[in-house]
Amino acid sequence: MAPPAHSSRSPSPSQPSGKGEVSDLKSQLRQLAGSRAPGVDDSKRDLFKKVISYMTIGIDVSSLFGEMVMCSATSDVVLKKMCYLYVGNYAKVNPDLALLTINFLQRDCKDEDPMIRGLALRSLCSLRVPILVEYLVGPLASGLKDSNSYVRMVAVIGVLKLYHISSVTCMDADFPAILKHLMLNDRDTQVVANCLSTLQEIWTAEASNSGEASRERDALLSKPLIYYLLNRIKEFSEWAQCLILELVAKYVPSDTNEIFDIMNLLEDRLQHANGAVVLATIKVFLQLTLSMTDVHQQVYERIKAPLLTLVSSGSPEQSYAVLGHLHLLVMRAPMLFSSDYKHFYCQYNEPFYVKKLKLEMLTAVANESNTYEIVTELCEYAANVDIPIARESIRAVGKIALQQYDVNAIVDRLLQFLEMEKDYVTAETLVLVKDLLRKYPQWSHDCIAVVGNISSKNVQEPKAKAALIWMLGEYSQDMQDAPYILESLAENWDDEHSPEVRLHLLTALMKCFFKRSPETRKALGIALAAGVADFHQDVHDRALFYYRLLRYNISIAERVVNPPKQAVSVFADPQSSEIKDRIFDEFNSLSVLYQKPSYMFTDKEHRGPFEFSDELGNLSTEANVSAQKVEADDKDLLLSISEKGDSGFPANGSAYNAPSYDSSKSLSASSTSSDLVILETGVLHQASPSLAIDDLLGLGLSTTPAPAPAPPLSLNPKAVLDPGTFQQKWRQLPISLSLELPVSPQGVAALTTPQALIMHMQGNSIHCIATGGQSPNFKFFFFAQKSEELSKFLVECIINTSSSKAQLKIKADDQNSTQAFSVLFESALSKFGML
Questions:
Q1: Residue 9 pLDDT > 80
Q2: What is the percent of the chain with per-residue pLDDT over 70, rounded to a whole number?
Q3: Among 318, 535, 749, 792, which one has the highest count of C-beta atoms within 10 angstroms of its own C-beta?
């Protein structure tokens, strides 16, 4: 028998089985409330622990509120703490019950024990009930004047809590002025630090509405206050030191002497054991010397040793945080760190994220003097059993080669990687060889000799296969088997799922066609026909563009697709200099670890490339065009040139075939050859528009029109399905198709607003009936209906943003249409940028 739907947790000894046990607790607490018998506090402790344990696992014990308050009349600090925890948990959701606690909390605020006074004041300010604000002013005022530093420290933070509950009450009570006095005169450094933190937050919030608050905020950066805090900085805790140093980093000294005074005061903070204090001190040094180039460079030399020491000590997490900041400095001044490259060698027991950052730094510090040692070390990592590190190390070797350091030796090592017969090594190396050939075309002979021995069947990764195809097209005149390899790929077009590979294949065949046309024309015809019918919009558009270009003029097509190229001098930097400067200004913050300015991951209007995803979703809904209409438009466009020019081109009967030929218009072999002049160099020149181009593409001169393909699957944009029917169908229908698809980084970013995906899919006639889950797992249930039938498709889509995978389960009334619907669904996801 199935368990009840409302409970999936098996009862445990510490969990009450019903209301009876809570009632027993209530009666026991009531009995102990007024008792003064010996050992009563121990009994109360046992009951309080049981109440707190029930509350922790989500059981409602708010009915015990009155009894818990009555039992709190004790001098036992442990009982007080548990009672305050209970009260704070239920006060916000039950404001009426919170009124019961005011009297005993106010009474405890006057207790002889400073620990109880502080705990009571903290609990009173943590109630966060607006109707109780009037009861906070008196205890807070008394707490700020308390003789015990712990109570004063709690009271200062209580003022900030009061400000967030009722800013008017806080300002009317003149608490900021009291805090300012405490900050300048209190002997306890923790009280001073709390005052500084509270005043910063209050005056920053008030500055937009009050000129006086703005002046007070600026006064925190005055010279007397800065020097007062710096002279006492050794007395503060580590957290407080970081707070003060963050304030000093914003201070603008009046002259260079003042800069050196501050740096001399903080010199010993660079040797502090706490990494946060060291980083905060470094930020002060860097900000103060930005306008002093020579001194700024000396600062780099001075801070290098403390940072390298922190990297080698502590936990991997601390090492990563320090390495992130060191990475930023290395990128700004790589020459200053070039002699310390051995500190960035990877240790066997370091986690992947630390090793990856070290590899980036090795790439940055490479120069003429250390390239050989660094590349030798990286080549050792390429044979590592840790595949991600092996990949990163190969990329690092390629980046160093692109910096023009010891290119000859590096190219030889990269070509040796291709002989390792490891799929991932071959894949990464092919991508790098492609970039190297773009920058160093003089190495094409050596590289092509090795690349030509690699079978395309052994290369499965899309980027690697695209790189191999690019080389086959670009250097087809030097690779004997290039046309035949490309032809086999074109014949297996449907087996290639990556749009990137299909795009490169189209371009490579075009380039090969201009160099070795007789061997390539059949493959190009197959690829153009398949590309025009491709569901991916970019592939479809490029194939259509190439097809029209060839029909118009082959010479112009060659100048467009395969013009003379100059070697690439500099590859684009993924980050602009403005972004890097902004990150540097936010030194000692998460911006350095994320490698992006704070506005990109904090403000809602800066959520990456999909910042306006809601608007994009609306546009995609409004601009949705059915597949049938697109195909019809394409057929019209294919005919537009021939009809307007009256050049005699016949009508296109199929999206998968070039124009069919009428037998009365077919040309003889002699007339065909007379229209085209094929030079010995393999370049084609078209004398005039003619039907010969169709035969040149290997599409045949059949007098019988090719049979029309099956009509594409069309969906009903106004399909309706109620949730009950969906659930019933989902239980009854078998799974027709199960897929796992990779999700692109853009797709992960887009899921910050899942509604955009829902609206986009609706624009493609695929409707969402339910959503669920939270980051990193999102679940969507979609349905669609054929346009002229009642047959429906049901989809469960689970997207995991941490693993970048999407799992699809498709169920259908018509099993024969599942594959066609799957293609439509994937195409819709691709258009959104998900795949």
A1: no
A2: 84
A3: 792
Q: What does DSSP assign to residue 742?
A: E
Residue 346 tokens, joined = 């990877």
- Identity of the residue numbered 512: C
Question: For residue 805, what is the enclosing H or E element?
Answer: strand 805-812
Residue corresponding to tokens 């994220």: 353
pLDDT tens track for 532-558: 999 999 999 999 999 999 999 999 999
How large is the C-alpha radius of gyration of the chain? 36
Scanning the structure block, which residue is given the tokens 């420290």?
A: 153
Return left, alpha or beta for 595; rule: phi > 0 is left, psi -120 to 50 is alpha, else beta.
left
Q: Give yes or no for residue 677 having a pLDDT over 70.
A: no
Instruction: Read off φ and ψ for residue 315, nearest 5 degrees.
Output: -75, 165
* Closest residue by Cα to residue 833 from 756, 739, 734, 732: 756
Residue 130 · residue 119 · CB < 8 Å = no
320 closest CA partner among 291, 292, 361, 289:
361
pLDDT of the residue at 603: 64
711 CB-side CA count, 13 A: 10
Of 430 and 610, the structure prediction assigns the larger pLDDT to 430
CB atoms within 10 A of CB 308: 17
Lookup result for tokens 């014990």: 61
ω into residue 483 within 30 of 0, thus cis? no
Look up residue 298 and give its two tokens. Answer: 């000396």
Question: How far is Cα 296 from Cα 277, in angstroms, rounded to an integer?
Answer: 20
DSSP state of 660: P
Structure tokens that stand for 396 in this block: 């690092």
Length of the chain: 835
Measured distance CA(448)–CA(480) in Å, rounded: 11
Measured N-to-C along each axis, helices 175-185 and 134-144 cross at an angle, to the nearest 10 degrees, of 20
Cβ pair 783, 793 in contact under 8 A: yes
821: Cβ contacts below 8 Å, ≥ 6 apart: 713, 784, 793, 810, 812
- Any idea of the CA torsion for 332, 336, 337, 338, to the nearest 10 degrees? 110
- pLDDT > 90: what percent of the chain? 30
Q: What is the residue whose two structure tokens read 């109630």?
A: 127
C-alpha 314/C-alpha 383 separation (Å) is: 28
377 versus 774: the higher-pLDDT residue is 377
Output the pLDDT for position 19.
Answer: 63
Tokens of 609: 């490339």
Identify which of 52, 53, 109, 111 has the alpha carbon closest to the alpha carbon of residue 85: 52
- Residue 428 and residue 412: Cα distance in Å, rounded? 15
H-helix or E-strand containing 795? Answer: strand 792-800
Place of tokens 């201009």: 514
Q: Is the pTM of this model over 0.90?
A: no
Q: How far apart are CA 457 and CA 341, in angstroms?
A: 39
Rounded to whole angstroms, the Cα distance separating 817 from 835 reads 22
Cα–Cα nearest to 327, from 304, 353, 358? 358
The predicted structure's pLDDT at residue 457: 80
Alpha helices for 452-597 (secondary structure H): 462-474, 482-491, 499-515, 517-532, 537-552, 554-561, 577-585, 590-594
Contacts 24+ apart (CB under 8 A), 341-349: 341/365, 341/366, 341/370, 341/373, 341/374, 343/308, 343/311, 343/312, 345/377, 346/381, 346/389
* Residue labelled with tokens 């009570």: 173
| Amino acid residing at 121 | L
CA dist., res. 594 & res. 614, Å (int): 25
The string of DSSP codes covering 239-272 is HHHHHHHHHHHT---SSHHHHHHHHHHHGGGGG-
* 511 pLDDT higher than 60: yes
pLDDT at 301 over 50: yes
Please name which of 90, 160, 148 lies closest in space to residue 119, comparing C-alpha atoms: 148
Question: Which of these, 702, 734, 741, lies nearest to 810 by C-alpha position?
Answer: 734
